[in-house]
């Protein structure tokens, strides 16, 4: 196994699906027309965009005209938070464990004069709906933005319940579902969310493509102005190969229970093995309401930055905290928010699986991890 690389960082990004890659190549050098032109070639491309939009809508139970393509999860989050129009209300509620795409957008909104409330979470990373009730105000809360599932610890939030509280108080509800799409069944009609962010590269499509679901009744200004693309709401010539890749990825995810079960079983096996074979180790997040591909641990008395380098040398790709902060020495804001003990907080490591991982890989990782942790503790 020593020359082989084992990729267990699928929350950071995923390998593009081979079928998708084959299918989209033609949009670079054959069907490359600008979809806004009027000749036959353009109509072919328009149809491809139409089909992609429809596949995304079908996956989340939306209407086609509620799906807007963006450059990714970050843009979708920015659009929802920065541009929602809800009378003259000036209060945003979010949580302490959101991705930086939300947290830093909120920071910007604060600098522009809005009030921001960051809700606490419990030890598993859950937001207590009562906490939302205590902080929301009918007069001033414009939008509540709570992620469907966390990128570091995988905790899945009670979105339907939180959304109901937002609506009862006249606020819009947005959810960042970047990590959740494809890993749990999402139905925007059932949860009743007003906006939802999606990203392509987390589900085996290309990087630089995403979507924002916008329920018809939502008042949202443009983030980007220019041409008439996306029904005048998001200008810029469409990134056709990427859009098609996202559509195909969603198509593959419709009724993919078999694949979901495969990933969940493999992940469960991984967690059980790690907890059984390595002493003084905790699983962060919640064991039940958890993304099917997430296995994140904290090892006592370990510096995970060293651990990750040793795993890399052994051919294993994993990550410390969130991908976006992996180069920084600061502890993860998520682990701080769930109150991980000092003894454990520096020993955090996140493994996120995909359909491409095998049991053989997991066995190799567990034995290597156990050996490496032991060695580091003995030094
Ligand atoms: N939101 C969450 C929860 C994420 O995990 C990420 C990426 O890691 C993003 C947003 C940003 O998405 P993108 O990389 O498509 O901009």
Automatic annotation (TrEMBL):
Instruction: Give all residue intervals belonging to the Aminotransferase class V domain.
Output: 6-365
* A single GO molecular function term of this UniProt record: metal ion binding
Q: Which UniProt keywords apply?
A: Iron, Iron-sulfur, Metal-binding, Pyridoxal phosphate, Transferase
Q: Which residues form a coiled coil?
A: none
| Source organism, top-level taxon | Bacteria
Q: Which cofactor does it need?
A: pyridoxal 5'-phosphate
Name the enzyme group at the top EC level: transferase
What EC number(s) does the entry state? 2.8.1.7
Catalyzed reactions: (sulfur carrier)-H + L-cysteine = (sulfur carrier)-SH + L-alanine
* Pfam families named in the record: Aminotran_5
Q: Which PROSITE patterns match?
A: AA_TRANSFER_CLASS_5
Q: What family name appears in the similarity comment? A: Belongs to the class-V pyridoxal-phosphate-dependent aminotransferase family. NifS/IscS subfamily.
The protein's name:
cysteine desulfurase
Source organism of this protein record: Peptoanaerobacter stomatis
